[in-house]
Prior knowledge:
By secondary structure, this protein is mainly beta. The protein has a single domain, classed as 3-methyladenine DNA Glycosylase, Chain A (Roll), CATH 3.10.300. It has three helices and nine strands, in the order αββββββαββαβ. The longest helix is centred in the first third of the chain and has 8 residues, at 16-23.
Amino acid sequence: MKxxxxxxxxxxxxxxxxxxxxxxxAQLVRRLDQRILSxxxxxxxxxEGVHDLASHSSRGxxxxxxxxFGPAGHFYIYRIYGLHWMLNxxxxxxxxxxxxxxxxxxxxxxPGRVALALGIEASLRGMPASxxxxxxxxxxxxxxxxxxxxxxxxxxxxxxxxxxxxxLRFVRI
DNA sequence: GCAGTGATCATA
DNA sequence: ATGATCACTGCC
Length: 173
């Protein structure tokens, strides 16, 4: 099966909201054993830099989030509630510490279920999105122009009303 | 609505 | 060392 061209690192060297929007309709591709799984992305969230009170990076650099402070196009992966893996890709300038969370792909809703379906685990932390790492993004179909809706992000009330209400979640409609 | 789950981080 | 928190999910 022919795969779309892999999206390179420069795509991610832009503001998180732009990347999050442009990833809707793109492919998320995983190589597991010798198999290639490919899913169309349907839902993302942007987490801006250290000024974004909903972003992990706003509470400073720690062992968990240090990948966020590194180069764009690498995976920020962490575990939440002791069981669910969250898949993010770092965006923006080096040290900006922004990222995009992959919340949903076609047929699969919820970030934990996305990670489960793709076999995401700790060994991918900090790896670049590329065929060499076994997990990467592919450009959307040329004639696929999805309608996109913007809403507040899910589960970030702890950030306070200003940041919790910003429309940084992108959903294919 | 809410329990489960355990890594992570601040505090000490 | 201890305790609170958590970018969630599944079942009621």
